[in-house]
Amino acid sequence: MSAHGRDTRTAYLFLLPALLPLAVFVLYPVVNLLWTSLHRSDILRNELTFLGLANYRALFAGEDFGRAAWNTLYYVAATVPLGMAVSLGLALLLNTEIRGLGLLRTMVFTPVVTSAVAAGIVFVWLLDERGPASALLALFGVKAQRWLQSEVWAMPAVVLMSVWKQAGYNMVLFLAGLQAIPETYYEAAALDGAGSPWRAFRHVTWPLLWPTTFFVLVMSVIQAFRAFEPMYVMTRGGPVGSTTTLVYFIFDRAFKYGDMGQAAAASVLLAVVVLGITWVQFRVRRDA
Amino acid sequence: MVHSQGGRLFRQVLAVSVAVVFILPLLLMIATSLRDPRDAAAGLQLLPARVHVGNYAEAWRATNFGRQFVNSLLVALLVTFGQILTSLLAGYAFARMEFFGRKTLFTIVLATMILPFQILVIPVFVVLARLGWVNSYAALVVPSLANAFGIFLFAQFFKTIPYELEEAAMLDGASRWTLLWKILVPLARPAVATLFMFTFIAEWNDLFKPLVFTSTKNMRTVQLGLTVFQEQFKVEYALLMAAVVFVTVPSVLLFFLGQKQFVKGIATTGLK
Amino acid sequence: MKVTFWHGMESGVNNQVLEAKIREFERRNPKIHIDAQVYGAADQLGPKLDAAVAGGTPPDLLWWAPAFFPRYAEAGVLRSLDDLMAQDPSFDHGDVYPFLWELGSYKGRVYTSPFSVNNLAVYYNKKMFREAGIAEVPRTWPELREAARRLTRDRVFGFEIPIGTAEWTVWTWQCFLWQAGGELLSPDARRAAFHHRAGIEALDFWRALKDDGSATFSETDAGYKTDGFLAGRVAMTINGPWNYPLLRDQDAVEVGAFPLPSGERAATNCGGESLFLFKSEPARERAAFAFMTFVTSADFQVDWAIQSGYLPVSKSASQSPTYRAFLEKNPFLAVFDEQMAAGRVRPSIPQYPALSATLGKHLEAALYGRRSSKEALERAAVEVDALLQ
Q: Which among A133, B113, C11, C32 is placed 20 to 30 Å from B97, CA to CA?
């Protein structure tokens, strides 16, 4: 093919329209964040005092950062598997010959495009102590509680809202993956005796869906680490910081406490962690 | 896939039930939006006692939603077209051109997806302020003109196109530019439709960017209008829900009409 | 001359009144045009304002709680008002309640001029009081506790305790701290003082209410919302006079107000909103200041107070016959007006928002039973001391 480097000039011309906004509005701010994390910063005065790693040390010395990190892991570990299972289930269900598929899929997708603020209001109402969720659970003998005011239940509630809101999005991705699997594979499997739905799934669907599944996994993990709106609209990071994830922590530090240095340091750590996990995922996949 | 007949009824019922569960919160919003304002203290409810359709007109008027709609639409469309253009160009370059630093650059581009906007907002704002773009359409559009997701999507797509097609075109004397626009892009229609949908919906739903970058009423977008509408101390649930409903309608409509293309577009990229 | 003015008054009635007043000002000052913009909820102002200031595009005038101004004064972006006030004969400095100037001063200079003032009292559900057989409103801590107990029944709580780390919680709790005889900071504002005996008593009192089962927590960072109260889920809640138009027009709950109970002494926290003047060019600054003068005048204050439910900032406005007559017809507001005598203000320091968030966090931990009051307050004191260095 072409010699390495021959297309370089043309390539960069093609890349320029995309690279310019990315460089100015993403990369530069990231570098800026890195720089800020090493200083005590008062953004109002554009003044920086060099602190070295003091911000990072402060993060680890206090208990808030650790708790936010833990909450984030909890959130990711709960949302990703649950979300993927639900989305896959929906995709499988809505990929068969039933009536009104278009409408049904739209109904499932609607939460994705609903305003987070409105969704928060609705969920707060649903989860009210005297609301429908409590009523439903009462049927199973569960005592009504102020779910969102409980340190234990606030995060599960936020997870629930997140899964509800994102399921349709991943469902669409899975649908695409499922539809890319040719019928012939299933026919062949049926001839080989793997005709039942479960065995077809195990031997045909799952393996062939893997690229899609992997993609959804990587994107879901990244999305989960970035989550902000569910916590913001439902619980404002409370109670007692139980739904404060890293992004919320960073937001709080920057705008409630006015500590841009610590916020930046936490951002850097967050970026490193997410990059790390993503890299690991790709590594594992390659070796598998 | 082999399916039994009896199973079909089961699946139909299950599918409908699940879909209803998903849409229930929205139904709640619609029901509440029709409620008579005098029942305001009742919070949310599924079956309002007194119905008042005028809520929609009132909500529309109350915070100048007409203008906000225009703003949201303009920004969403500009960003979407912008992202499609930049992503097609960049995606093609990454997929099909050999150049110095390709792998590293691609990784860096993908890495830009990692940090959420809430974290980058202050430095971005400072840049915008220096450019004099605060409270303008430029502030809402330009920072979002490129997106790693779009680049990734098209790069994946272009990789699935056979080399022979390109070689043939280039032998005929076509430049890269012509090749891309006259031959490859028409093939990429489903993928373009997909990016269109993803991006339009994301921009339409964005709250934080307009919140920080605009400061006057006439520059607000619908999402920002919604939060401002949510009065601080007095909760006009009925009007708020009416506003939510007509803010959500465009995206839902877009998905409903375009879902087949949407799914097909993702499928064509292979996602490998 | 265009002056940009950011404010947070979205509520229909107040906004209309403000617009009318702005038109009046513009009629009297034809060369000045006030471009008023609503910034939405108070907790959304933070990122927006900080970004605007960092980017060099702040508004000329800002309507916000004065507790937040010192940070901006320290950063040098606010215009001090002393010379402007001295130059303007119509600006009656002495007429305004002195502690409002205290609240608006930093390092000896005045930076904010008051727009309206308010304080905290207790809303109560009159019907529930009658049903519980409580004839007189509680005046002391023990009486409040007893009332809360009697008002609590199936799914209805006597009292609502605000939680969260946005300013509201600390603003409310500070009243009880003062009532117990304590202070937030040492006189030189270099060290925390809320962890001594008074603070522990104040926190223990809230915990007692919770442990009695007669109090419930508000939604996080939403202690100012009246939802729970209006839905009949709590019989008493701490709040201010600004909800008056809303309360007056609803028919779900028969609302009354009574002053905060006394501990060792009576005390309430005064807040309100003030106008901040951001530096720009002298001509614009003077135009903006003209609006500040207009706002502080008794004329504006009486009109504004009567229509919005906020309290006037000057003695002459408060004593005016028009306003006195108004209070007689609206005893609800009279409660707040009378409490001004026991009014006190928060310390004017740049670290106040961080202090508030820190203290709020620890108060929450104690209220949720994670720590004893003493331990929670001591930990908070350590963090606050570090902030103040």
A: B113
Domains of chain A, each with CATH number or no CATH: 70-260 (1.10.3720.10)
pLDDT tens-digit readout, A140-166: 877 777 788 888 889 999 999 999 999
Considering the domain architecture, whether residues C24 and C114 belong to the same structural domain is answered as yes
Confidence of residue A3 (pLDDT cuts 50, 70, 90): very low
pLDDT one-digit tens code per residue, C349-386? 888 888 998 999 999 999 999 899 999 999 999 999 98
Mean pLDDT score across all residues of chain C: 89
For position B5, what pLDDT does the model report?
61
Q: Which residue has the tokens 């103040």?
A: C388
If DSSP states are collapsed to H, E and C, what string results for A111-151? HHHCCHHHHHHHHHHHCCCCCHHHHHHHCCCCCCCCHHHCC
Q: Chain C: nearest CA to A224, how far in angstroms?
A: 22
Give the integer Cα–Cα distance in Å for B207 and A2. 46
| Lowest model confidence (mean pLDDT) among A188-192, B89-93, C185-189, C269-273 | A188-192
Contact B251 A107 (CB under 8 A): no
Domain count, chain B: 1
Q: State the Cα–Cα distance between residues C312 and A286, nearest whole angstrom.
A: 71
- Confidence at residue C41, expressed as pLDDT on a 0 to 100 scale: 67
Inter-chain touch A108–B86, beta carbons under 8 Å: no
CB of A46 less than 8 A from some CB of C: yes
Cis amide bond preceding A239, omega within 30: yes
- B148 in reach of chain C (CB within 8 A): no
Chain B neighbors of A10, CB-CB under 8 A = 93, 97, 176
Q: Tens digit of pLDDT for each residue in A85-97?
A: 999 999 988 888 7
**B contact residues 47-86, partner C, Cβ 8 Å cutoff:** none
Cβ–Cβ contact C50 with A under 8 A: yes
In a domain, B90, yes or no: yes
Domain of B101? 62-268
A143 touches C at CB < 8 Å = no
Q: How many domains does chain C have?
A: 2
**The domain that contains B227 carries what CATH number?**
1.10.3720.10
State how far the Cα of A3 lies from the Cα of B100, in Å rounded to an integer: 11
Lowest-confidence region among B13-17, B43-47, C24-28, C158-162: B43-47
Q: What is the mean pLDDT of residues C25-42?
A: 86
Least CB–CB distance from C10: residue in B129, B135, B231: B231
Any idea what the CATH number is for the domain that residue C46 is in? 3.40.190.10
Domain of residue C275, residue span: 2-118+271-344
What digits encode the pLDDT tens for the residues A56-103?
A: 988 998 889 999 999 999 999 999 999 999 999 999 888 887 788 888
Same domain? C326 vs C357: no
Q: Do B234 and C246 touch (CB under 8 A)?
A: yes
- Which has more confidence, C346 or A196? C346
Same-domain pairing of C136 and C111 = no
